[in-house]
Write a structure and sequence with these properties.
CATH topology: Phosphatase 2c, domain 1
Number of domains: 1
Shape: globular
Mean pLDDT: 89
Strand order of the largest sheet: 1-10-9-6-7
Number of strands: 10
Structural class: alpha+beta
CATH superfamily: PPM-type phosphatase domain
Length: 260
């Protein structure tokens, strides 16, 4: 059927827009995991390695499925990769800026918000988390536009901190919204887990919801073993939880571990 073919093409385009490789700065492990829902088009994540060695990390949920959501993802990806404010790279002749300087995460979210307000349907929006990692120092600057708060596991104490700071409205809802940013420093052994709402709101065949408490517990249990171990445990638990049921929404995980 034509509708089935179109749906498959939408899913293929969404997968094509996701990163082919994940940067691995010296002394760090960064891993990602993405599951496409029954109706593709919701989640998008990306990494941009900047000329000075910093890494921009972007995780977003287009708030819907299908072609409109993929169009939203495509628009945001083009801006991130082509604009010197986010890529840190001069883009002649499109953006002839010399010595472009990466803008902080809250400025980038404000820039994307303006673009989406002007170029999307009234009911469209995008939840987005934007962070910039300095691998040499361990500093992580970030701003949040409606995404679930990340989990930060502290190796020194074994405590799990929920990062609820710098949270604002999703992109595309209000032209006059402003975003704020925060900074913290990841120490050796620390693990930071970013995820889309599709993980915590994921239902199984009996109507049970995965939930944030289950996410927090899994991070606490496995973070001491590193990012790959956290990812592997989540994959096992998600597959066990779903037990063959196809989740309606996308889910995405991005896990950072400072090793030294």
């Amino acid at each position: 059927m034509e509708s089935t073919r179109q749906l498959a093409l939408i899913g293929e385009l969404q997968r094509h827009l996701l990163p082919k490789q994940i940067p691995q700065p010296a002394g760090w492990q960064i891993v990602g995991y993405h599951v496409q829902g029954r109706w593709p088009g919701g989640d998008y994540y990306d990494f941009l390695t900047l000329p000075d060695g910093r890494v921009l990390i972007f995780l977003a949920d287009a708030g819907d499925q299908g072609a409109p959501a993929v169009a939203l993802i495509g628009m945001v990806r083009v801006v991130l990769h082509s604009c010197p404010m986010s890529s840190g790279v001069e883009r002649l002749p499109f953006c002839p800026l010399h010595e472009p300087v990466l803008q902080p995460p809250h400025v980038l979210l404000g820039h994307l918000n303006d673009i989406l307000v002007e170029n999307t349907l009234q009911e469209q929006f995008m939840k987005a988390f934007c962070g910039v990692l300095d691998p040499a120092e361990g500093n992580f600057h970030f701003a949040n536009a409606g995404q679930p708060p990340p989990c930060w596991w502290h190796a020194s104490s074994g405590d799990l901190e929920i990062i609820r700071h710098a949270n604002g409205l999703p992109l595309g809802l209000n032209r006059h919204v402003s975003y704020h940013h925060k900074r913290f420093q990841l120490d050796p052994g620390d693990v930071l887990v970013l995820f889309s709402e599709g993980l915590t709101s994921m239902p199984n065949g009996t109507g049970e919801i995965f939930g944030s408490e289950r996410v927090n517990a899994l991070v606490r249990q496995t973070a001491s073993k590193g990012a790959e171990a956290v990812k592997a445990r989540f994959i096992i638990e998600i597959e066990h939880f779903l037990n063959g049921f196809v989740t309606p929404d996308d889910l995405t995980l991005v896990i950072l571990e400072r090793q030294i």
